[in-house]
Design a protein that fits this description.
Oligomer: single chain
CATH superfamily of the largest domain: Hypothetical protein, domain 2
Shape: globular
Strand content: under 5%
Bound molecules: iron/sulfur cluster
Number of domains: 2
Number of helices: 13
Distance between the termini: 23 Å
Order of helices and strands: HHHHHHHHHHHHH
Structural class: mainly alpha
Radius of gyration: 18 Å
């Protein structure tokens, strides 16, 4: 957290007072795409589709065309459009309980966690491949290939949220993964966690 306070990244979706729609759209756009890419695109999308109503009334092909600059556009358009339609059926109200959130089409574990964390203020991890990489390097390898069903990683990701601001620690780990504990060449020589990091001790990069 000390590192993050000094080096953490600023993104438009981390501003205060964003709508539920703006928060969810950001998380969907961010999946499998670099945050810097989405930072340059986010406001363009929101200006084109400013809320659930405009999105639910959209044409899926037009949506795919709009999403083309950030890639995976057909897949994303299908997912975002289905989500908007589903929200329309729910009068654009996000359910409060996890079981109902999970029933929204194309939600997935990551976005459902983001809804609980960012909208409902619950301590939930934004556990993606980047957070998983940091946790595995520091603590030890996962037990199952799929992050979503790995009890070890899931338990670790929940444990690190205890006693801290859950939103901030999630953002801190994601920034740390992007800037220090990078996939190909982790910057262990300037990492403040290196003395206690299992990966560093074993590899001495
Ligand atoms: Fe990642 Fe290296 Fe830091 Fe360990 S020491 S957390 S591997 S950057």
């Amino acid at each position: 957290m000390e590192w993050w306070k000094q080096y953490g990244r600023n993104f438009p979706w981390r501003e205060e007072f964003l709508s539920e729609y703006e928060l969810i759209i950001a998380e969907i756009l961010l999946q499998r795409t670099k945050a810097e890419t989405i930072a340059n695109y986010y406001m363009f999308f929101l200006n084109s589709y400013p809320g659930w109503e405009s999105l639910a009334a959209a044409n899926e092909n037009d949506l795919a065309t709009l999403l083309r600059p950030i890639g995976l556009y057909n897949q994303r358009a299908k997912r975002i459009f289905a989500l908007a339609k589903s929200m329309e059926q729910r009068d654009f109200i996000i359910p409060q309980d996890r079981e109902s959130i999970d029933k929204i089409p194309f939600m997935g574990q990551y976005i459902a966690n983001a809804v609980e964390l960012l909208i409902l203020n619950r301590a939930k991890p934004l556990l993606d491949v980047n957070m998983a990489r940091v946790l595995e390097r520091y603590f030890g390898p996962r037990q199952k290939a799929d992050i979503r069903y790995d009890p070890y990683l899931q338990s670790l990701a929940h444990d690190i949220l205890k006693g801290v601001n859950a939103k901030e620690i999630n953002w801190a780990i994601l920034d740390f993964a992007a800037l220090i504990c990078q996939s190909k060449k982790p910057k262990c020589s300037i990492c403040s966690l290196s003395e206690s990091c299992r990966y560093y001790k074993n590899n001495k990069i």
